[in-house]
Design goal:
- The structure holds 2 protein chains of 2 kinds.
- By secondary structure, chain A is of the alpha/beta class.
- In chain A, α8 runs parallel beside α21 (629-640), α9 crosses α16 and α18 (534-542) crosses α20 (563-572).
- The longest helix of chain A is centred in the middle third of the chain and has 19 residues, at 290-308.
- Chain A is globular, with a radius of gyration of 28 Å.
- By secondary structure, chain B is an alpha/beta fold.
- In chain B, 38% of the residues lie in helices and 15% in strands.
- In chain B, β5 and β6 (102-103) form a beta hairpin.
- The relative contact order of chain B is 0.08.
- The chains are: A alpha/beta, B alpha/beta.
- The A-B interface holds A 41-47, 49, 58-59, 61, 64, 66, 79, 82-83, 86-87, 90-91, 93-94, 123-126, 148-149, 151, 167-168, 170-175, 404 and B 281, 283, 298, 300, 303, 305, 315, 451-460, 462-467, 470, 487, 490-491, 494, 497-500.
């Protein structure tokens, strides 16, 4: 620790802190424009200059100069004030004063500084260098005439998001920030650049020209697009949501958000939002009153449990309940309704992994937290798509890697975002992650069988494997992330993680939905013995073991592979109750539809996948006549009466079905299909909530199939050409995309969720299927 | 068959003295005195002329004819007879062009006599593409000494003792830098040679790389050994194709001979060097921007700390030195740090190469001991001002240096001596200006250079320089206002105080120093709308003196814009509105009728 004085205020800071940090701690204002705490200092704007009393006359940029013991920093000497004023005047030379039409006005750092330092005129006249405005990019408008070239967007894109989409072009006074060749943005659309821009150069198109910032009221809540439950600021104008921004970086928070969080908010007011309860009358869904609808649902459920036993009613949850609601639902389901199976589709992988982790240990497990992740110096990711399922992991991991001497090992079958950053990328063949994990467990496990000799099967060399084992055996802080495959098998991954649990600092299962962690850990909203997910649900319905389905925001029709089989199964059911915020495919088959509120419309707590607890206050009233799930539960419980049915043990027939492995693909089906196709998660969200957003839909551009650049050229495809993808199971039209990192003869299928054709290409439990590509019209 | 003699080598070995106790040297001196060739024929003392059975003997050079000294008697007559048999007894003398004084060799020119060559010692003497010639001139001997007889710490100790400071301009002590780089245990480390010489008018590094590339390589290998690096990079601007070719050849030859690559000289030390051609940005001469450029990123200076010796190229400890610095290393290792320290001044040891350009008679590269004053450099070595015009100013250190006047010519040139006068030694560019140079225009020229070459990162350099250039241009076209001078000074001081890297911090130096020493010229431009040096075209007008005009019409012929009309036997008439002040007519007029 060192002690120094800032404007005669004594302050003690850790060694290595910058003068700016010391000034901040002393409560002294130092003007900055190019500084953002989320990224490394850059020293471009030169506004943060200060003087040391012992070295008068020399101006020190405080944002990157380390503070030294017994320094006496002065921030308001005539020299400093003159330098800051001149600097601002110089910045204004190239900045248009179009504040009346600039959306940043009112929260613009430059505007604030100009007012604070009372800049009323510019003594410097020179012709302004003409710069361009990029209006073609989706969601983000880049008005380079307003740019002050602080480089924050360039750096946050490269340093945190790892995209390097923006870069300085040209030099000297001709410098501009741009993309290569001046093309429109084609990136992750994480919006970090927009969030960091101190002036109005980078604009959120959803917000631009809608209102003025001083009319907005800001409320902090959580983003519900994935399980990381990032803190987000909702900006409201008279009860209308106008924009969402990352919550300001403070404390342990990083101030990060992804495309879904920042640009996906129009899902909350999408046309698919359910505004009133509905009831099926004479084969058609009609609007109904709450009492009527709830009463109907209660009666139907009661009838079925009396006729077939409580085990014949299954509940699927999308984990969009607050912890309190989940606890109430769990209690209700167990005690009042008799404890039928509970499961999830969107969070199925997460729940399954936890089940195995707990099964291995026999007790509740303590999963890793953000702190564990931060302090570990080795990160092992089992399974691909971790950063696609939870996009904020990408900047988190990139920031973590920056701290030096960090190792990131990724076991994946396809080049996902983390594999590209990995120091040790173990890219196994398509669909072989599970088998690889099983082999690895054997090699590491108590029997310590030597690593299998035929590693060629997995497509990785023994050197890489030796390094992975070396990493595991070194005495270092290791965190393990387990990324499930959405509708695949995740047992071996989970078993490997369970085995590693004692050796490593933390194991973090991924793939959960908004409050999966809260629902499982704090609320215990799980079924004791029988969990249903994906295939087992369909099989149970087909076998007649399940006769009714209570859907809490889930939709098997839009999320499970093989939709025609799922539809047949759904049609067999005696009763489907859809309780959720959106109208989806399954609503058409539902008997009762109960509109539910979204997380930001509720009160309660939420636990993120990384162990951060957040308290929610409703920032908006529930949409239309929808109600929070807790209230619906109260009405339902009241309608069912207090008569509790004794808990029914699970029917013996309802054993967990072993999920078939890759062998499910018919052996001769691969004839004439040179590619191997895998469905992979998308950065822009596969969940029902994300799919409702028209803006994310614009980024998703429907079903997409990614192939290697070589294959793309060999097939003679044009950019964004629509091609026909055939597998032994089905056929779909998808937009072709090339990616140099994808190995040849491989296809990655994106955005299958929500697309019947896309889902028909695969089967549950089969992660890799043979496929062929044909150009349409040939 | 030999036609002339320029030197005589004689054997001074002990075995020959035993055979016949003749003092060959004094004998030769006496004989040459008598023959009148004393000034023209040099004597070279050698250890052995091989033919010991004949000894003592002498050898006539060039040609290598050996002559046996049998006795002291009749020696002069014998020599006389020998010389008589030659067509030209001695090689023709060089006559110095200006003084017409006859001198025996180029090294006797005033231009060379005051110089001390360490870095440029091999220039012109060896074939740069031949490693054998370099080796014959003690090449790679220093490397051998360092690798076999010295520990890395001893090498660094020797460099520290020598007091060598970085020749790129900043003058950071080289030994200290090496010590820093050695201190960090990280691996790999890198050695970088900065050959991105961008100052207008400076070509010291180019000359070294082109004429003595192996000296640079040797210095780098020694540095690699000292700091524990195994890889070196030479960053050379792509505008130096010959330097690139010479360095490439030198690296190939050095690899063949085992000075580079695995197991250098069989000592188990590995070191290799690669060349990285720069892409034409001046700012990439700044060390951190240079490293970004090698990494393939945009060449922009980064913030310090950390220093490059801790975290440089690819985040690894990196030792970056200038070409000239590395070229000094072999001599320091061979002759010892104390030898080097004895040359130059206390704080700035050794020699410095300057590239002397501008309005000076002897334009070229000059290597002088540190502390030599400007007058010696410009007037004695440089031979004074061309065309015997009046000396006006000298600009040191490229676009970022200041202009000094007559009153500063007594100042010794060292790293620190010129700072109070508002200039710096910099990397060694010396631009001499006579009274045909307008100092406002000079300031504008150098500012324009800095504006073009600014990377655009920080505000004062990106915008401030452009604004300052605008003010200068306003003054030059005659729209300057009295308040502009204070404004100019304020802008310049602001840029110098708040810019990020050396480029911006030093870019206002030409403006500040001309404002200080040539204030009257600025005043003339602003108040009288007049350019005293007749350079700023908007402030001058020409007129034809009808009386002096001899009606030849030459001016009308050369005028590129037909601004002069002329009819036979009539004085020429100049049309001001068409005149572009190109001065073609002034140069063409033989009667000085136009002014």
């Amino acid at each position: 620790m060192i002690t120094l004085k800032v404007n005669d205020i004594e302050v003690t800071v850790p060694r290595g802190s910058t003068i700016l940090q010391a000034a901040e701690k002393a409560g002294v204002f130092v003007p900055t424009l190019c500084h953002d705490k989320r990224i490394a200092p850059f020293g471009a704007c030169r506004l943060c200059v200060v003087e040391d009393r012992k070295k008068p006359g020399s101006l020190i940029p405080s944002c990157f100069t380390p503070a030294r013991d017994r320094m006496e920093i002065l921030t308001e000497t005539p020299a400093v004030l003159d330098a800051v004023r001149t600097q601002l005047q110089l910045i204004l030379v190239n900045h248009p004063l179009d504040c009346p039409v600039c959306d940043k006005a009112g929260e613009c750092t430059l505007q604030d500084l100009v007012i604070r330092y009372n800049i009323t005129e510019s003594p410097f006249g020179t012709e302004r260098f003409a710069r361009y405005v990029d209006r073609r990019s989706p969601l983000i408008e880049r008005d380079m005439t307003r740019c002050v070239l602080c480089g924050r967007c360039v750096r946050i894109c490269g340093e945190l998001q790892g995209r390097d989409e923006l870069e300085f072009l040209h030099r000297g006074h001709r410098t501009v920030v741009g993309t290569d060749g001046g093309r429109p943005l084609d990136c992750d659309f994480c919006g970090l650049c927009v969030s960091t821009c101190p002036v109005g150069a980078l604009n959120d198109k959803l917000f631009k020209d809608r209102t003025r910032v001083w009319k907005l009221r800001q409320e902090t809540t959580v983003c519900s697009h994935c399980g990381l439950a990032c803190r987000a600021d909702f900006h409201l104008e008279e009860g209308r949501l106008r924009r969402v921004t990352p919550a300001a970086a403070s404390g342990g928070e990083k101030g990060l958000l992804c495309a879904r969080g920042q640009f996906g908010w129009r899902a909350f007011e999408s046309p698919g939002r359910l505004g009133a309860p509905k009831l099926r009358r004479d084969g058609a869904l009609c609007e109904a009153g709450w009492d009527e609808a709830v009463g109907h649902a209660a009666k139907a459920l009661d009838d079925i449990r009396r006729a077939h036993g409580a085990a014949s009613i299954a509940l699927l949850t999308a984990d969009h309940l607050t912890t309190e609601e989940a606890a109430a639902w769990g209690a209700f389901w167990r005690d009042t309704l008799g404890g039928g199976p509970i499961g999830s589709i969107q969070a199925g992988g997460y729940r399954r992994i936890l089940e195995i982790l707990e099964g291995a240990r026999g007790t509740r497990v303590a999963v890793g937290t953000l702190r564990d992740l931060d302090e570990a110096n080795v990160l092992i990711v089992l399974g691909g798509g971790a950063a696609e399922m939870h996009p904020v992991l990408k900047p988190l991991v990139n920031g973590w890697m920056k701290k030096g001497d960090r190792q990131l090992a990724v076991v994946s079958s396809w080049p996902d975002a983390l594999t590209r950053r990995a120091t040790l990328a173990l890219t196994v063949g398509p669909g072989l992650v599970e088998e690889f994990c099983a082999e690895l467990l054997e090699a590491l496990g108590p029997e310590r069988i030597n690593p299998p000799a035929d590693l060629a099967r997995f497509g990785i060399d023994s050197c890489a494997l030796a390094r992975l084992i070396g990493l595991l055996e070194e005495k270092r802080d290791i965190a393990v992330l387990v990324a499930p495959e959405p509708c695949g098998d995740n047992r071996h991954k989970a078993r490997l993680a369970a085995y590693l649990q004692d050796r490593v600092r933390a194991v973090v299962p991924l793939g959960g939905q908004a409050n999966s962690a809260g629902a499982v850990f704090e609320a215990g909203f799980t079924s004791g013995e029988v969990a249903v997910d994906g295939l087992s649900l369909v099989e149970a319905i087909e076998a007649g073991r399940i006769r009714a389905l209570y859907l809490l925001g889930e939709d098997p029709l839009e999320s499970l592979p093989d939709p025609s089989r799922v539809r047949q199964a759904m049609e067999k059911l005696d009763c489907i109750v859809c309780q959720g915020p959106f109208e989806t495919a399954v609503t058409g088959l539902a008997h009762v539809v109960l509109p539910a509120a979204l997380l930001h419309e509720k009160r309660g707590t939420v636990l993120s996948l990384l162990g951060e607890k957040r308290t929610l206050r409703p920032v908006l009233p529930p949409f239309g006549r929808s109600r929070p799930d807790g209230e619906i539960l109260r009405a339902l419980a009241a309608a069912l009466g207090s008569e509790a049915v004794p808990r029914v043990p699970a029917a013996p027939a309802a054993q967990k079905t072993a999920i078939p492995s890759v062998g499910a693909v018919p052996r001769d089906a691969g004839q004439g299909m040179p590619f191997i196709l895998e469905a992979v998660p998308s950065l822009f969200g596969d969940g029902i909530l994300s799919r409702q957003s028209p803006d994310l839909a614009q980024l998703r551009r429907g079903l997409r199939v990614v192939m290697s650049a070589g294959d793309f050229e060999r097939l003679g495809l044009a950019e964004r050409e629509i091609v026909e993808v055939r597998t032994p199971f089905g056929c779909a039209r998808a937009e072709a995309e090339r990616d140099a990192a994808v190995p040849c003869s491989r296809l990655l299928l994106r955005h299958a969720a929500g697309s019947a054709a896309g889902l028909s290409l695969t089967r549950p439990g089969t992660s890799a299927v043979p496929a062929a590509i044909a150009r349409i019209g040939t | 068959m030999i036609s002339s003699v320029s030197k005589i080598a004689y054997c001074a070995s002990r075995s020959c003295k035993f055979r016949k106790p003749i003092d060959v040297r004094s004998l030769l001196e006496r004989a040459l005195d008598e023959l009148g060739y004393r000034d023209r024929i040099g004597l070279v003392e050698t250890e052995c002329l091989i033919s010991c059975y004949q000894g003592p003997s002498i050898m006539f050079l060039p040609g290598g004819k050996v002559f046996q000294v049998l006795s002291e008697e009749h020696f002069t007559e014998t020599l006389k007879g020998f010389f008589a048999s030659l067509q030209h007894p001695t090689s023709p003398l060089l006559s110095e062009p200006r003084t017409e004084k006859e001198i025996p060799g180029i090294e006797h020119l005033d231009f060379f006599a005051k110089q001390k060559l360490i870095v440029l010692r091999n220039r012109g003497h060896i074939d740069a593409e031949s490693i054998e010639e370099y080796i014959a001139h003690d090449g790679y001997l220093a490397l051998y000494k360092a690798l076999t007889a010295m520990t890395p710490e001893e090498v660094i100790g020797e460099v520290k003792l020598s007091g060598l400071r970085g020749r790129g301009g900043a003058g950071f002590p080289t030994g200290t830098k090496w010590e820093e780089a050695r201190k960090y245990a990280a691996f790999p480390k890198y050695v970088i040679c900065n050959g991105d010489e961008g100052d207008p008018g400076a070509f010291m590094d180019r000359s070294v790389m082109e004429s003595d590339p192996h000296a640079v390589l040797e210095g780098m290998i020694v540095c690699g050994y000292a700091i524990g690096a195994r890889q070196g990079y030479i960053y050379v601007r792509a505008e130096y194709p010959l330097a690139l070719r010479m360095l490439r050849t030198a690296i190939d030859r050095a690899r063949e001979k085992g000075f580079l690559g695995r197991n250098v000289l069989g000592t188990g030390f590995d070191f290799d060097i690669d060349i990285y051609p720069g892409a034409g940005a001046f700012v990439c001469g700044e060390s951190t921007a240079l490293m970004y450029s090698i990494e393939g990123k945009r060449g922009m200076p980064r913030i310090k700390p950390p220093r490059s010796t801790e975290s440089g190229l690819w985040g690894r400890p990196t030792c970056l030195n200038n070409v000239e610095t590395f070229a000094n290393i072999p001599r320091i290792i061979l002759n010892g740090g104390a030898w080097f320290r004895a040359i130059g001044t206390e704080d700035s040891t050794g020699t410095k190469v300057f590239s002397l350009t501008g309005a000076v008679k002897n334009v070229g590269l000059v290597e002088v001991p540190m502390g030599t004053d400007l007058r010696t450099i410009i007037f004695e070595i440089g031979g004074g001002i061309r065309g015997n015009a009046r000396f006006k100013a000298v600009q040191l250190g490229g676009p970022s240096g200041g202009c000094l006047t007559e009153q500063h010519l007594h100042l010794p040139v060292t790293f620190d001596s010129l700072q109070d006068a508002g200039a710096m030694m910099g990397s060694g560019g010396v631009v001499v200006m006579d009274d045909t140079n307008c100092m406002v225009d000079v300031a504008r020229f150098f500012t324009q250079f800095s504006v073009d070459e600014s990377c655009g990162k920080c505000v004062p350099c990106r915008v401030g320089l452009k604004v300052m250039l605008g003010t200068l241009e306003k003054i030059i076209v005659g729209q300057g206002e009295p308040s502009d001078l204070a404004l100019l000074e304020r802008q310049a001081n602001h840029i110098a105080a708040t810019s990020h890297c050396g480029l911006g911090q030093a870019a206002p130096n030409p403006v500040l120093s001309t404002l200080r020493y040539f204030h009257d010229e600025y005043e003339a431009h602003i108040r009288e709308k007049r350019c005293p040096a007749l350079v700023c075209t908007d402030l001058i007008r020409f007129e034809i003196d009808a009386e002096a005009c001899k009606r030849c019409g030459l001016c009308a012929k050369v005028c590129p814009v037909n601004a002069i009309s002329w009819q036979k036997k009539e004085p020429a008439v100049l049309h001001q509105e068409k005149c572009i002040r190109c001065k073609s007519c002034i140069r063409a007029c033989r009667f000085k009728a136009i002014h």
